[in-house]
Backbone:
């Protein structure tokens, strides 16, 4: 997956719109002094991918003192040769939209379910997502202060085992050459 653009509005410290576009392939660094909003950007990206848009457990996404805030995140990204635009708004008038290659549009839970299937994680039935829902992407979502935790590895283990069993099953079925070629 390659993230191409990030847009935030009314999200924590960003009462106004923040736009980060033209992200390059490879590593993109966000630098700045304390309280500049680096962790807020990371939290917004994580929320867009891993939190249900209808959850009410995200009141801390709203900027302080902004009544009726509607924290919103829009991400443009690629997976393989396919481009996606994910838009989520939380709290008031919550919504979710996933646009695939500019032609297919999914909304609400259908958009979230397609996203989870695409990236290999699951959403919680209720409340905020927890490490056990993040699957393999959870290996990449290490939050500030959690770098020593082994929980993401433990929770991703079952997803990795399932993937390896599928691969080994395909190899055992005699179709391994095709798989290795891919």
Residues:
């Amino acid at each position: 997956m390659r993230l191409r653009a990030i847009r935030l509005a009314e999200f924590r410290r960003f009462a106004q719109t923040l736009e980060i576009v033209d992200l390059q392939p490879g590593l993109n660094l966000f630098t700045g002094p304390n309280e500049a909003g680096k962790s807020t950007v990371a939290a917004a990206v994580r929320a867009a991918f891993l939190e249900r848009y209808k959850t009410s457990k995200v009141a801390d996404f709203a900027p302080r003192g902004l009544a009726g805030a509607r924290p919103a995140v829009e991400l443009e990204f690629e997976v393989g040769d396919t481009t996606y635009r994910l838009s989520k708004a939380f709290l008031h008038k919550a919504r979710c939209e996933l646009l695939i290659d500019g032609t297919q549009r999914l909304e609400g839970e259908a958009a979230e379910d397609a996203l989870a299937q695409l990236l290999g994680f699951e959403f919680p039935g209720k409340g905020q997502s927890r490490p056990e829902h993040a699957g393999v992407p959870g290996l990449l979502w290490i939050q500030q202060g959690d770098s020593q935790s082994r929980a993401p590895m433990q929770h991703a283990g079952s997803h990795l085992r399932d993937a390896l069993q599928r691969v080994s099953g395909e190899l055992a079925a005699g179709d391994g050459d095709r798989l290795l070629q891919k």
